[in-house]
Amino acid sequence: MSKFYLNYLDELESEAIFILREVWAQFQNPVILFSGGKDSIVVAHLAKKAFYPSKIPFALMHIDTGHNFPETIQFRDDLIAELGATLLVGSVQESIDTGRVLEERGKNANRNALQTTTLLDAIESHKIDCAIGGGRRDEEKARAKERFFSHRDDFGQWDPKNQRPELWNLLNGKYFEGEHFRAFPISNWTEMDVWNYIKRENIAIPSLYFAHEREVLWRNNSWIPKSEYLILDGTEEIHTKKIRFRTLGDITITGGIESDADTLEKIVAEVASLRHTERGNRADDKRSESAMEDRKREGYF
Predict the structure, then answer these.
(1) For position 107, what pLDDT does the model report?
(2) d(CA 35, CA 62)
(3) 53: CB partners within 8 A, 6+ apart
């Protein structure tokens, strides 16, 4: 009798599918948090495989800041149509208009932190008890502290020092009224794992990830895309550069890197040679040493 072997991508896929099925088994109304970035796209793909031939049993929820790349929104809508899934949208603009949050002002203003209130409002209004995210431990030190099932209190807050143990493959999703969980099925993946999996599975991704010519300006050691939301000072100039994005967020804070990687094979080779993290060009993470953990404690993704 021949032995059955799994390669490392098969093992990561198997673990993620197990977690997604555990979410479906333990929670009443889970959703997939969908940003249009590669990690949430991979989570949607894994959910499709986990429940095939049925449709994905989770709605996808997008917290829309209103400052998106147009390519991201088009990709989101095309994927929702392909999956036949339900899309829930939480609007940061609506949170601003109703006075729930105060919009930042100035040259470096962005809406990233404002998403927390919109996210928690959407979780409460839709009675969501588990929000599945594409966070990975290798992205940032605060995300390295997350468990597969990560508890949030009745204020939506996260306490990294008070988490439930996860022994072997036992995941504890019990919660009290008003609390909820976040689940991270690809927590053990690295950026390289994600790219190799996208390449192996031939998963469609937004064109923003491939090198292309774009108008950008140099700010905070990153190439920031030109957009109607940027306020330029007198010293900044617009350049046309061939760049690509390693991670996608708001168009106002997502920095690109100069690159010729216009295929998945070239992206994999490029990522293998890089010596800085993928979130190194995100202005929201540069605000302080603990910027991500501070946001996550308040209920951020």
Answers:
(1) 81
(2) 6
(3) none
127 φ/ψ angles, rounded to the nearest 5 degrees: 55, 50
Q: What contacts 289, CB < 8 A, 6 or more positions away?
A: none
Antiparallel, parallel or unpaired: β 30-33 and 59-64: parallel
The CB density around residue 18, as the number of other CB atoms within 10 Å, is 15
Q: Residue 119 above 70 pLDDT?
A: yes
**What is the b/e burial string over 118-143, where b = at least 16 CB atoms within 10 angstroms of the residue's CB?**
bbbbbbeeeebbbbbbbbbbbbbebb
Residue 5, pLDDT score: 73
**Tokens found for residue 224:** 């920031």
As given in the structure block, the two tokens for residue 187 are 């927590």
- Between CA 40 and CA 35 the distance in angstroms is 6
Average pLDDT (113-138) is 95
**If you average pLDDT over every residue of the chain, what do you get?**
91
Query: What stretches of the chain show up as alpha helix (H) in DSSP?
Result: 8-26, 38-50, 70-83, 92-97, 115-125, 191-201, 264-273, 291-298
Q: How far apart are CA 293 and CA 288, in angstroms?
A: 10
φ/ψ of residue 96, rounded to 5: -70, -45
Distance CA 219, CA 237 (A): 10
CB 25 within 8 A of CB 18: no
Q: Which residue has the tokens 């208009």?
A: 97
| CA pair distance 174, 177, nearest whole angstrom | 10
Give bridge partners of residue 30 from the DSSP assignment: 130
Cβ-count burial 61-87 (b if 16+ within 10 Å, e if not): bbbbbebbbebbeebbeebbeebebeb
